[in-house]
Amino acid sequence: MKVIIVGGVAGGASAAARIRRLDENAQITMFERSGFVSYANCGLPYYIGDIITDPEELTLQTPESFWSRFNINVKVQHEVISLDTSSKSVSVKNLVTGEIFEESYDKLILSPGAKPTVPDMSGVNSEKIFTLRTVEDTFKIHKFISDNNIKSAVIAGGGYIGLEMAENLLNKGVDVTIVQRPKQVMAPLDYDMACQIHGLLREKGIKLKFGSSVSGFGESGGKVETLLKDEHSLVSDIVILAIGVTPDTKLAEEAGLELGIKNSIVVNDKMETSAKDVYAVGDAVQVQHFVTGEDSLISLAGPANKQGRIAADNICGIDSHYKGSQGSSIIKIFDMTAATTGINEKTAKALNINYDKVVLFPLSHAGYYPDAVSMAMKVLYEKNTLRLLGAQIVGYEGVDKRIDVLATAIRAGISADKLKDLDLAYAPPYSSAKDPVNMAGFMIENINTNKLSQFHWDDMDSLPHDGSVTLLDVRTPYEYKSRHIEGFINIQVDELRKHIEQLPKEKPVYVMCQSGLRSYIACRILSQNGFECYNLSGGFGFLNSIKEEEIAASKSYPCGLPR
For the chain, which ranges sit under pLDDT 70? Predict the structure, then answer.
């Protein structure tokens, strides 16, 4: 069996190694357009920031190691320029010599990945404007910064690459501005969760310019000028385009393969394309979202590697199926961590899913053990079925293990209220006896059994201030005096039973505390005394972080944020 693999990163490399492990006699050839294979895309920004100093650390395998360990023929700087599915052959161009030759196959795997989105606008081809995809891109950016004493940078886009580049450039002493049209970084997060990141970025000195449309680029005094629609332009030494990626599917399109979202390659759950004996994996393929069942594009290394393994299995006669992607991802932003899995509120609303959510601020480990820090956690679930839909966590410690538990729970089909039953490891340096994931389950159970009713930060502006409801802040007098919401009276939770007769029972009570825990206790006291009451999800701290971000953002540009 002769197998040709187009693309030697993530999915392609994974497929090649798996085929060899299953079939010692297969003839495997892998063509890679760049000069490197099996490299760590996610590590590229850290080389630019000198966190990774040895360029060899960026590559997991080399053509030589692939041959010596796996007996796989890897040809770098070779681009497959055409595919003929009827004759089962590809045309390959040696990018060093210019030679073009034909290669036949029995089975073909396409793993071309995704390319950085480059807008069609004036000046975009400037030598001072870069994208980041390959190891060569990394070296080019690193050299440009070193050779030109770069002091300022504009990053177009606030996704994973944009944020990682912002951190690494700032660590090199570069003044950084992130500019983009969306009003938040990290699209997989909801706005309220992204606000937890915005504050840190501003604190570190990164300028955030949201709601701005880049219209082109120019030159100004030896610097690059980022032109903005209806705004003053930004002038910097370098621009990094990080506005997203597009499936690199020109080869598949010209070969007549069926294409889907954004010209991605349509595959079935065996990773088979519309052409016989042609498979596709990785960022170039359309997948089914595990939670929604919708066709999706999810560009992540984990799914790409799994897809490569599944394609290899089926090529070698093993009946293997891809069950869909749920978009589990995580990012380090300075000393903060942000992670997500499943879907967010924006997606749930767009799909008309009847969902609910809990927001909590648990500590990373036992509060009595030193250095415990809180994290913001949001868990979404379907109201009627209690099916877990997604989770988002932003914090400083312990985020990774909680998001992995929640991702596992979603994949396993565990009911949202059953999160309380998970038997998770506990010791004071690592967790609390009631782990944050357990706490989310307790909250969901309470809501489902009508022991708790909620209102949310974006309901605050619509609360009546005409005396028809009671607005109650159960924090300490000191907390209340430091800052509070107009219209809320203060009775701290520990004094509530003594003053409960002061509250009219005929009026609904909207209760808040700092994180939502004390106000929950207050709600239980009130409800058992005949009151109708609602707890502010996430508490005053969550609300305040969002409002402070809106104020900070409004000072950054004339028109501010839309309310």
Answer: 40, 555-563
**pLDDT tens readout for residues 488-525:** 999 999 999 999 999 999 999 999 999 999 999 999 99
* Helix locations, 213-282, DSSP H: 250-254
Provide the token pair at 435. Answer: 């782990």
φ and ψ at residue 455, rounded to 5 degrees: -135, 165
Residues 393-413 have pLDDT tens digits of 999 999 999 999 999 999 999
What are 235's strand-pairing partners? 225
Whether residue 75 contacts residue 32, with contact meaning beta carbons closer than 8 Å, is answered with: yes
β-pairing verdict for 388-395 and 329-333: unpaired
Q: 2-39+60-113+246-315 sits in which CATH class?
A: alpha beta
Helix 11-22 to helix 301-315 angle, to the nearest 10 degrees?
30
Catalytic residue numbers read 42
Dist. CA 324–CA 143, nearest whole Å: 40
DSSP state of 364: S
**Mean pLDDT of all residues belonging to the chain:** 94
Dist. CA 184–CA 190, nearest whole Å: 9
Tokens of residue 558, six digits: 């004339």
For residue 389, give the nearest of 343, 357, 354 by alpha carbon: 343
Q: Which residues on adjacent β-strands are paired with residue 109? A: 5, 279
- Residue 421 CB-density burial (10 A; 0-12 exposed, 13-18 middle, 19+ buried): exposed
In contact, 397 and 476? CB cutoff 8 Å: no
CA end-to-end distance (rounded Å), the chain: 61
Residue 268's contacts (CB-CB under 8 Å, 6 or more residues apart) are none
Q: How far is CA 474 from the centre of its chain?
A: 35
pLDDT the model gives residue 555:
64
* Paired tokens of 561: 């944020």
Q: What is the pLDDT of residue 58?
A: 79
Listed by start position, the domains of the chain span 2-39+60-113+246-315, 129-243, 335-448, 454-537
CATH class of 129-243: alpha beta
Q: Does domain 335-448 have CATH number 3.50.50.60?
A: yes
Task: Provide the pLDDT for residue 54.
Answer: 84
Predicted pLDDT at 57: 80
Instruction: Report angle CA 342, 544, 182 to the nearest 5 degrees.
Output: 50
Residues paired with 454 in a beta bridge: 535
| Integer Cα distance of 29 and 324 in angstroms | 28
DSSP state of 182: S
Domains 2-39+60-113+246-315 and 335-448 share a fold: yes
In terms of Cα–Cα distance, which of 141, 151, 320, 119 is closest to 229?
119
Sign of the torsion angle spanned by Cα atoms 114, 297, 289, 458: positive
Looking at residue 222, its amino acid is G
> CATH topology for 454-537?
Oxidized Rhodanese; domain 1 (3.40.250)
